[in-house]
Design brief:
This protein is of the alpha/beta class. The chain has two domains: 348 residues, Metal-dependent hydrolases (TIM Barrel); 94 residues, uronate isomerase, domain 2, chain A, CATH 1.10.2020.10. It is 50% helix and 8% strand. Strands 4-5-8-9 form a four-stranded parallel β-sheet, with helices on one face. Helix 13 packs across helix 14 and helix 18 packs across helix 19. The model has no long low-confidence stretch (mean pLDDT 97).
Length: 466
Protein backbone atom coordinates (compact mmCIF):
# COMPACT_ATOMS: atom_id res chain seq x y z
CA UNK A 1 0.00 0.00 0.00
CA UNK A 2 1.20 3.52 -0.84
CA UNK A 3 1.95 6.02 1.89
CA UNK A 4 -0.73 8.16 3.52
CA UNK A 5 1.87 10.93 4.10
CA UNK A 6 0.45 13.29 1.47
CA UNK A 7 1.26 16.96 0.96
CA UNK A 8 -1.70 17.81 3.19
CA UNK A 9 -1.08 15.17 5.86
CA UNK A 10 -2.64 16.31 9.20
CA UNK A 11 -3.90 19.55 7.62
CA UNK A 12 -7.67 19.35 7.88
CA UNK A 13 -8.88 22.72 6.60
CA UNK A 14 -7.89 25.41 4.13
CA UNK A 15 -6.44 27.69 6.79
CA UNK A 16 -4.16 24.92 8.04
CA UNK A 17 -3.00 24.04 4.54
CA UNK A 18 -2.15 27.64 3.66
CA UNK A 19 -0.38 28.22 6.98
CA UNK A 20 1.79 25.14 6.53
CA UNK A 21 2.66 25.47 2.85
CA UNK A 22 3.13 29.25 2.84
CA UNK A 23 4.63 29.90 6.28
CA UNK A 24 6.08 26.75 7.92
CA UNK A 25 7.19 24.21 5.36
CA UNK A 26 10.39 25.80 4.10
CA UNK A 27 11.75 27.29 7.33
CA UNK A 28 15.10 26.00 8.64
CA UNK A 29 15.31 23.91 11.81
CA UNK A 30 16.69 24.88 15.21
CA UNK A 31 16.99 21.69 17.28
CA UNK A 32 18.04 23.15 20.61
CA UNK A 33 17.87 19.94 22.65
CA UNK A 34 18.82 16.48 21.41
CA UNK A 35 21.14 13.58 22.15
CA UNK A 36 22.96 13.30 18.84
CA UNK A 37 26.49 11.90 19.34
CA UNK A 38 29.02 14.66 18.50
CA UNK A 39 31.65 12.10 17.51
CA UNK A 40 29.40 10.86 14.70
CA UNK A 41 29.00 14.41 13.41
CA UNK A 42 32.72 15.09 13.65
CA UNK A 43 33.56 11.85 11.86
CA UNK A 44 30.78 12.38 9.28
CA UNK A 45 29.63 8.83 9.94
CA UNK A 46 28.23 6.79 7.07
CA UNK A 47 25.85 3.97 7.94
CA UNK A 48 26.14 0.50 6.49
CA UNK A 49 22.44 -0.28 6.78
CA UNK A 50 19.13 1.13 7.92
CA UNK A 51 19.27 -0.62 11.28
CA UNK A 52 22.36 1.35 12.25
CA UNK A 53 20.80 4.72 11.46
CA UNK A 54 17.22 3.85 12.46
CA UNK A 55 17.16 1.37 15.35
CA UNK A 56 20.45 1.82 17.23
CA UNK A 57 19.78 3.50 20.56
CA UNK A 58 16.11 4.20 19.78
CA UNK A 59 14.35 3.16 22.97
CA UNK A 60 11.02 4.46 21.59
CA UNK A 61 11.12 1.65 19.03
CA UNK A 62 12.56 -0.82 21.55
CA UNK A 63 9.55 -0.40 23.83
CA UNK A 64 7.13 -1.17 21.01
CA UNK A 65 9.16 -4.17 19.92
CA UNK A 66 8.92 -5.57 23.46
CA UNK A 67 5.20 -4.79 23.61
CA UNK A 68 4.86 -6.79 20.38
CA UNK A 69 6.41 -9.83 22.06
CA UNK A 70 9.74 -9.62 20.22
CA UNK A 71 12.63 -11.38 21.95
CA UNK A 72 15.34 -9.08 23.36
CA UNK A 73 17.84 -10.76 21.06
CA UNK A 74 16.27 -8.82 18.18
CA UNK A 75 16.18 -5.52 20.09
CA UNK A 76 19.42 -4.97 22.00
CA UNK A 77 20.84 -8.48 21.67
CA UNK A 78 23.21 -10.21 19.28
CA UNK A 79 20.85 -10.72 16.34
CA UNK A 80 22.11 -9.43 13.01
CA UNK A 81 21.21 -5.94 11.85
CA UNK A 82 18.94 -7.43 9.20
CA UNK A 83 17.13 -9.60 11.74
CA UNK A 84 16.54 -6.53 13.92
CA UNK A 85 15.14 -4.61 10.96
CA UNK A 86 12.84 -7.52 10.14
CA UNK A 87 11.57 -7.54 13.72
CA UNK A 88 10.72 -3.84 13.41
CA UNK A 89 9.01 -4.44 10.05
CA UNK A 90 6.90 -7.12 11.73
CA UNK A 91 5.98 -4.66 14.48
CA UNK A 92 5.18 -1.54 12.45
CA UNK A 93 1.68 -2.61 11.24
CA UNK A 94 0.72 -2.99 14.90
CA UNK A 95 1.70 0.58 15.83
CA UNK A 96 -1.30 2.47 14.43
CA UNK A 97 -2.28 5.25 16.83
CA UNK A 98 1.29 5.59 18.07
CA UNK A 99 3.37 8.49 16.69
CA UNK A 100 6.01 5.97 15.61
CA UNK A 101 3.64 4.80 12.89
CA UNK A 102 3.74 8.34 11.50
CA UNK A 103 7.45 8.90 12.14
CA UNK A 104 8.41 5.58 10.54
CA UNK A 105 6.67 6.36 7.28
CA UNK A 106 7.67 10.03 7.24
CA UNK A 107 11.32 9.01 7.60
CA UNK A 108 11.06 6.32 4.93
CA UNK A 109 9.52 8.87 2.58
CA UNK A 110 11.63 11.94 3.35
CA UNK A 111 15.06 10.30 3.61
CA UNK A 112 14.75 7.21 1.42
CA UNK A 113 12.04 8.13 -1.08
CA UNK A 114 10.11 4.99 -0.10
CA UNK A 115 6.34 5.43 -0.48
CA UNK A 116 5.24 1.96 0.63
CA UNK A 117 3.97 1.19 4.13
CA UNK A 118 6.44 -1.09 5.88
CA UNK A 119 5.33 -4.62 6.78
CA UNK A 120 6.67 -8.18 6.72
CA UNK A 121 5.80 -8.68 3.06
CA UNK A 122 7.83 -5.78 1.68
CA UNK A 123 10.51 -5.72 4.39
CA UNK A 124 13.16 -7.43 2.24
CA UNK A 125 12.60 -5.00 -0.62
CA UNK A 126 12.67 -1.94 1.66
CA UNK A 127 15.77 -3.25 3.45
CA UNK A 128 17.61 -3.46 0.12
CA UNK A 129 16.39 -0.11 -1.21
CA UNK A 130 17.16 1.74 2.00
CA UNK A 131 20.64 0.24 2.21
CA UNK A 132 21.32 1.18 -1.40
CA UNK A 133 20.26 4.74 -0.63
CA UNK A 134 22.64 4.81 2.36
CA UNK A 135 25.56 4.36 -0.03
CA UNK A 136 24.88 7.87 -1.35
CA UNK A 137 27.39 10.32 0.20
CA UNK A 138 24.48 12.66 0.97
CA UNK A 139 23.36 10.17 3.66
CA UNK A 140 26.34 10.84 5.93
CA UNK A 141 25.67 12.61 9.23
CA UNK A 142 26.91 16.04 8.19
CA UNK A 143 25.05 15.98 4.90
CA UNK A 144 21.89 14.86 6.65
CA UNK A 145 22.10 17.94 8.87
CA UNK A 146 22.58 20.23 5.89
CA UNK A 147 19.94 18.57 3.72
CA UNK A 148 17.46 18.70 6.63
CA UNK A 149 18.07 22.48 6.73
CA UNK A 150 19.27 22.34 10.33
CA UNK A 151 20.74 25.67 11.42
CA UNK A 152 21.57 24.71 15.00
CA UNK A 153 22.02 21.53 17.03
CA UNK A 154 22.32 21.55 20.82
CA UNK A 155 23.78 18.23 21.93
CA UNK A 156 23.73 17.00 25.55
CA UNK A 157 27.12 16.84 27.23
CA UNK A 158 28.56 16.11 30.66
CA UNK A 159 30.70 18.87 32.23
CA UNK A 160 33.64 16.45 32.42
CA UNK A 161 33.62 15.86 28.64
CA UNK A 162 36.64 17.29 26.84
CA UNK A 163 34.41 18.42 23.94
CA UNK A 164 37.16 17.56 21.47
CA UNK A 165 34.59 16.64 18.83
CA UNK A 166 32.87 19.98 19.25
CA UNK A 167 36.22 21.70 18.85
CA UNK A 168 36.83 19.89 15.59
CA UNK A 169 33.31 20.56 14.30
CA UNK A 170 33.60 24.27 15.14
CA UNK A 171 36.75 24.56 13.06
CA UNK A 172 35.23 22.71 10.10
CA UNK A 173 33.20 24.07 7.20
CA UNK A 174 29.92 22.50 8.38
CA UNK A 175 27.18 25.11 7.94
CA UNK A 176 25.13 23.71 10.83
CA UNK A 177 26.19 25.12 14.19
CA UNK A 178 26.74 22.24 16.64
CA UNK A 179 27.02 23.39 20.24
CA UNK A 180 27.34 21.50 23.52
CA UNK A 181 24.70 21.76 26.25
CA UNK A 182 25.75 21.56 29.90
CA UNK A 183 24.19 18.52 31.66
CA UNK A 184 25.62 18.28 35.23
CA UNK A 185 23.21 15.66 36.62
CA UNK A 186 26.00 13.46 37.98
CA UNK A 187 27.41 16.45 39.84
CA UNK A 188 24.17 16.74 41.82
CA UNK A 189 23.70 13.03 42.50
CA UNK A 190 25.53 13.08 45.83
CA UNK A 191 23.47 10.23 47.29
CA UNK A 192 25.11 7.81 44.84
CA UNK A 193 28.36 8.00 46.80
CA UNK A 194 30.82 5.94 44.75
CA UNK A 195 29.59 7.22 41.40
CA UNK A 196 29.62 10.78 42.71
CA UNK A 197 33.16 10.46 44.05
CA UNK A 198 34.44 9.15 40.71
CA UNK A 199 32.68 11.95 38.88
CA UNK A 200 34.21 14.60 41.15
CA UNK A 201 37.65 13.17 40.36
CA UNK A 202 36.90 13.48 36.64
CA UNK A 203 35.67 17.03 37.16
CA UNK A 204 38.91 17.98 38.85
CA UNK A 205 40.93 16.46 36.03
CA UNK A 206 38.85 18.25 33.40
CA UNK A 207 39.16 21.59 35.20
CA UNK A 208 42.87 21.09 35.92
CA UNK A 209 42.58 21.51 39.67
CA UNK A 210 42.18 19.47 42.81
CA UNK A 211 38.60 19.26 44.06
CA UNK A 212 38.87 18.53 47.76
CA UNK A 213 36.18 20.78 49.25
CA UNK A 214 32.95 22.45 48.21
CA UNK A 215 34.51 25.78 47.23
CA UNK A 216 36.88 24.08 44.78
CA UNK A 217 34.00 21.94 43.54
CA UNK A 218 32.08 25.10 42.61
CA UNK A 219 35.20 26.64 41.09
CA UNK A 220 35.68 23.55 38.93
CA UNK A 221 32.05 23.65 37.77
CA UNK A 222 32.47 27.33 36.96
CA UNK A 223 35.59 26.53 34.97
CA UNK A 224 33.61 24.05 32.88
CA UNK A 225 30.80 26.55 32.34
CA UNK A 226 33.40 28.93 30.90
CA UNK A 227 34.81 26.19 28.69
CA UNK A 228 31.39 25.17 27.35
CA UNK A 229 30.60 28.82 26.68
CA UNK A 230 33.75 29.20 24.61
CA UNK A 231 32.47 26.45 22.34
CA UNK A 232 29.10 28.11 21.77
CA UNK A 233 26.98 26.55 24.50
CA UNK A 234 23.52 28.13 24.66
CA UNK A 235 21.81 26.05 27.35
CA UNK A 236 22.14 23.80 30.33
CA UNK A 237 19.89 20.80 30.88
CA UNK A 238 18.82 19.11 34.11
CA UNK A 239 17.02 15.80 34.44
CA UNK A 240 14.94 16.03 37.61
CA UNK A 241 13.07 12.98 38.85
CA UNK A 242 11.37 14.95 41.65
CA UNK A 243 11.64 18.72 42.05
CA UNK A 244 13.46 19.83 45.19
CA UNK A 245 13.99 22.94 47.26
CA UNK A 246 15.78 22.94 50.60
CA UNK A 247 17.77 26.12 51.33
CA UNK A 248 21.24 25.86 52.83
CA UNK A 249 24.25 28.05 53.38
CA UNK A 250 27.41 27.38 51.42
CA UNK A 251 29.01 26.17 54.64
CA UNK A 252 26.20 23.66 55.22
CA UNK A 253 26.42 22.47 51.62
CA UNK A 254 30.18 22.15 52.02
CA UNK A 255 29.82 19.90 55.05
CA UNK A 256 27.34 17.74 53.15
CA UNK A 257 29.70 17.62 50.17
CA UNK A 258 32.58 16.33 52.32
CA UNK A 259 30.38 13.71 53.96
CA UNK A 260 29.12 12.61 50.56
CA UNK A 261 32.67 12.18 49.28
CA UNK A 262 33.47 10.12 52.38
CA UNK A 263 30.51 7.84 51.70
CA UNK A 264 28.56 8.87 54.80
CA UNK A 265 24.80 8.34 54.78
CA UNK A 266 22.85 11.50 53.99
CA UNK A 267 19.26 12.32 54.82
CA UNK A 268 16.89 13.32 52.03
CA UNK A 269 16.88 16.85 53.44
CA UNK A 270 20.69 17.02 53.26
CA UNK A 271 20.66 15.67 49.71
CA UNK A 272 18.18 18.36 48.71
CA UNK A 273 20.18 21.05 50.49
CA UNK A 274 23.25 20.14 48.47
CA UNK A 275 21.31 20.04 45.21
CA UNK A 276 19.55 23.33 45.91
CA UNK A 277 22.69 25.23 46.84
CA UNK A 278 24.68 23.85 43.91
CA UNK A 279 21.96 24.45 41.35
CA UNK A 280 21.44 28.00 42.61
CA UNK A 281 25.13 28.65 42.06
CA UNK A 282 25.01 27.17 38.56
CA UNK A 283 21.85 29.07 37.64
CA UNK A 284 23.53 32.37 38.43
CA UNK A 285 26.44 31.39 36.19
CA UNK A 286 24.00 30.49 33.41
CA UNK A 287 22.46 33.94 33.68
CA UNK A 288 25.90 35.55 33.41
CA UNK A 289 26.43 33.61 30.17
CA UNK A 290 22.93 34.34 28.84
CA UNK A 291 22.23 30.60 28.67
CA UNK A 292 18.83 29.00 29.00
CA UNK A 293 18.33 26.61 31.92
CA UNK A 294 16.22 23.57 31.00
CA UNK A 295 14.41 21.44 33.59
CA UNK A 296 13.11 18.05 32.39
CA UNK A 297 10.91 17.07 35.31
CA UNK A 298 9.14 13.87 36.23
CA UNK A 299 10.48 10.58 34.83
CA UNK A 300 10.72 7.38 36.83
CA UNK A 301 13.86 5.77 35.48
CA UNK A 302 15.13 2.18 35.30
CA UNK A 303 11.92 0.62 36.61
CA UNK A 304 12.85 -2.89 35.47
CA UNK A 305 15.76 -3.90 37.70
CA UNK A 306 16.47 -7.13 35.87
CA UNK A 307 16.78 -5.38 32.51
CA UNK A 308 18.71 -2.45 33.98
CA UNK A 309 21.31 -4.87 35.33
CA UNK A 310 21.40 -6.65 31.98
CA UNK A 311 21.60 -3.79 29.46
CA UNK A 312 21.91 -0.55 31.47
CA UNK A 313 20.07 2.81 31.52
CA UNK A 314 18.26 4.60 28.69
CA UNK A 315 17.06 1.32 27.26
CA UNK A 316 13.30 1.79 27.30
CA UNK A 317 12.37 1.07 30.90
CA UNK A 318 11.53 4.61 32.03
CA UNK A 319 8.00 5.92 32.56
CA UNK A 320 6.02 8.82 34.02
CA UNK A 321 6.36 9.72 37.68
CA UNK A 322 3.81 11.48 39.86
CA UNK A 323 5.82 13.51 42.37
CA UNK A 324 4.41 16.90 43.40
CA UNK A 325 6.38 19.77 41.91
CA UNK A 326 4.51 23.08 42.17
CA UNK A 327 5.69 24.23 45.61
CA UNK A 328 9.39 23.27 45.39
CA UNK A 329 9.64 24.58 41.83
CA UNK A 330 8.07 27.89 42.80
CA UNK A 331 10.36 28.28 45.79
CA UNK A 332 13.44 27.41 43.78
CA UNK A 333 12.69 29.86 40.96
CA UNK A 334 11.72 32.53 43.48
CA UNK A 335 14.99 32.05 45.38
CA UNK A 336 16.84 32.92 42.17
CA UNK A 337 14.57 35.82 41.31
CA UNK A 338 15.08 37.38 44.73
CA UNK A 339 18.84 37.52 44.15
CA UNK A 340 18.45 38.59 40.50
CA UNK A 341 19.93 35.27 39.45
CA UNK A 342 17.14 33.67 37.40
CA UNK A 343 18.32 32.84 33.85
CA UNK A 344 16.16 32.18 30.85
CA UNK A 345 14.36 28.98 31.84
CA UNK A 346 12.47 26.24 29.99
CA UNK A 347 10.22 23.91 32.00
CA UNK A 348 9.19 20.49 30.67
CA UNK A 349 7.06 17.91 32.48
CA UNK A 350 6.67 14.25 31.62
CA UNK A 351 3.33 13.84 33.39
CA UNK A 352 0.70 15.87 31.46
CA UNK A 353 -1.18 16.27 34.72
CA UNK A 354 1.40 18.99 35.42
CA UNK A 355 0.89 20.95 32.19
CA UNK A 356 -1.21 23.68 33.78
CA UNK A 357 1.22 23.88 36.72
CA UNK A 358 4.18 24.63 34.46
CA UNK A 359 2.23 26.89 32.10
CA UNK A 360 1.03 29.06 34.97
CA UNK A 361 4.35 28.83 36.85
CA UNK A 362 6.16 30.29 33.85
CA UNK A 363 3.95 33.36 34.03
CA UNK A 364 5.12 34.12 37.58
CA UNK A 365 8.67 34.95 36.53
CA UNK A 366 8.55 36.85 33.24
CA UNK A 367 10.31 40.21 32.85
CA UNK A 368 11.25 42.74 30.18
CA UNK A 369 14.61 41.15 29.31
CA UNK A 370 13.13 39.00 26.54
CA UNK A 371 9.59 37.94 25.56
CA UNK A 372 8.85 34.55 27.10
CA UNK A 373 11.89 34.49 29.38
CA UNK A 374 10.43 31.53 31.29
CA UNK A 375 8.98 28.98 28.90
CA UNK A 376 6.54 26.11 29.23
CA UNK A 377 8.47 23.72 27.03
CA UNK A 378 7.13 21.59 24.22
CA UNK A 379 5.34 18.28 24.78
CA UNK A 380 8.04 15.88 25.93
CA UNK A 381 8.71 12.17 25.47
CA UNK A 382 5.46 10.28 26.13
CA UNK A 383 3.54 13.43 25.18
CA UNK A 384 5.33 13.78 21.84
CA UNK A 385 2.26 12.99 19.72
CA UNK A 386 -0.75 14.77 18.23
CA UNK A 387 -2.88 14.81 21.38
CA UNK A 388 0.07 15.72 23.61
CA UNK A 389 1.27 18.57 21.38
CA UNK A 390 -2.21 20.00 20.94
CA UNK A 391 -2.85 19.80 24.68
CA UNK A 392 0.43 21.50 25.57
CA UNK A 393 -0.08 24.31 23.05
CA UNK A 394 -3.74 24.82 23.94
CA UNK A 395 -2.93 25.11 27.63
CA UNK A 396 -0.10 27.54 26.91
CA UNK A 397 -2.44 29.63 24.76
CA UNK A 398 -5.13 29.53 27.45
CA UNK A 399 -2.97 30.88 30.28
CA UNK A 400 0.04 32.51 28.58
CA UNK A 401 1.27 33.78 25.21
CA UNK A 402 1.72 31.05 22.63
CA UNK A 403 3.11 33.73 20.30
CA UNK A 404 6.47 33.49 22.12
CA UNK A 405 6.55 29.66 22.33
CA UNK A 406 9.90 28.11 21.34
CA UNK A 407 8.34 25.23 19.43
CA UNK A 408 9.76 21.81 18.69
CA UNK A 409 12.90 19.88 19.57
CA UNK A 410 13.67 16.25 18.79
CA UNK A 411 15.22 15.07 22.10
CA UNK A 412 16.52 12.28 19.87
CA UNK A 413 19.62 10.23 19.17
CA UNK A 414 18.66 9.71 15.52
CA UNK A 415 19.84 11.67 12.49
CA UNK A 416 16.53 10.87 10.80
CA UNK A 417 14.44 12.51 13.51
CA UNK A 418 14.39 16.02 12.03
CA UNK A 419 11.19 15.13 10.18
CA UNK A 420 9.56 15.49 13.61
CA UNK A 421 9.87 19.24 13.13
CA UNK A 422 7.69 18.83 10.04
CA UNK A 423 5.29 16.73 12.13
CA UNK A 424 5.09 19.44 14.80
CA UNK A 425 4.62 22.22 12.27
CA UNK A 426 1.75 20.38 10.61
CA UNK A 427 0.08 19.87 14.00
CA UNK A 428 0.65 23.53 14.93
CA UNK A 429 -0.79 24.79 11.65
CA UNK A 430 -3.78 22.49 11.92
CA UNK A 431 -4.44 23.61 15.51
CA UNK A 432 -4.36 27.30 14.63
CA UNK A 433 -6.31 26.67 11.43
CA UNK A 434 -9.01 24.90 13.42
CA UNK A 435 -9.27 27.93 15.73
CA UNK A 436 -9.79 30.15 12.70
CA UNK A 437 -12.29 27.74 11.17
CA UNK A 438 -14.34 27.76 14.39
CA UNK A 439 -14.17 31.53 14.58
CA UNK A 440 -12.35 31.67 17.92
CA UNK A 441 -9.54 33.71 16.33
CA UNK A 442 -9.72 35.98 13.27
CA UNK A 443 -9.01 34.38 9.91
CA UNK A 444 -6.19 36.85 9.33
CA UNK A 445 -3.61 34.87 7.38
CA UNK A 446 -0.91 37.52 7.76
CA UNK A 447 -1.28 37.59 11.55
CA UNK A 448 -1.55 33.81 11.88
CA UNK A 449 1.41 33.41 9.53
CA UNK A 450 3.61 35.46 11.87
CA UNK A 451 2.62 33.17 14.74
CA UNK A 452 3.50 30.08 12.72
CA UNK A 453 6.86 31.43 11.56
CA UNK A 454 7.87 32.61 15.02
CA UNK A 455 6.89 29.39 16.80
CA UNK A 456 8.47 27.21 14.10
CA UNK A 457 11.79 29.06 13.92
CA UNK A 458 12.27 32.72 14.79
CA UNK A 459 11.42 32.58 18.50
CA UNK A 460 14.14 30.00 19.12
CA UNK A 461 16.57 31.95 16.96
CA UNK A 462 16.06 35.04 19.14
CA UNK A 463 15.86 33.19 22.46
CA UNK A 464 19.14 31.35 21.95
CA UNK A 465 20.80 34.38 20.38
CA UNK A 466 21.66 32.57 17.14
Amino acid sequence: MKTFITDDFLLHNEYARELYHEHAKDLPVIDYHNHLPPNEIEQDRKFENITQIWLEGDHYKWRLLRANGIDEKYITGNASDKEKFMAWAQTVPNTMGNPLYHWTHMELLRYFGIEELLDEENAENIWNRANERLQDPRMSTRNLLVDSRVDFVGTTDDPVDDLKFHQSIASSELSTMVAPSFRPDQGLDIANHEKFRRWVEKLGAAAGREVDRYSTFLEALSNRVDYFDELGCRASDHGITAMFYEPATEQEAGEIFERGLNGDALSLKEEHQFKTCTLQYLAERYKEKNWAMQFHIGPMRNNNTKMYEKIGPDSGFDSMGDQLLAEPLSKFLDSLEKRDGLPKTILYCLNPRDNYILATMAGNFQDNSIPGKVQFGTAWWYNDHIDGMENQMSILANVGLIKHFLGMLTDSRSFLSFSRHEYFRRILCNLMGSWAERGTIPADMKLMGRYIEDISYYNAKRYFDL
